[in-house]
Amino acid sequence: MQNNYFEILDKSIRNNTSSKILICGNSGSGKSTLAKLISDYYHIPHIEIDHLFWLPGWKIRPKVEFNKLLDKELLNPSWIIDNAGVKLVSELSNQATL
Hints:
By secondary structure, this protein is α/β, with parallel strands linked by helices. Helix content is about 45%, strand content about 15%. A hairpin with a 3-residue loop joins strand 3 and strand 4 (about 60).
């Protein structure tokens, strides 16, 4: 019997009062697209790491400022994060429920 991953995801999100979803993958694999679709469908905030990390002109935001912005976003009871670097993934995986 083949599992339907979307049914599993749907049941998991609907059965939790808070869903913290971490989407990982290679560049161009569709992480942001999937995060946006899930965010729009379930009305879960989508935290775009790139928007927090990069300043205009592709300048890197200072780490202290980035951490403050991210910490504020993580206060939401539910969120979806995609495109996190290896270090950030290891930190966020402890908070993620999916």
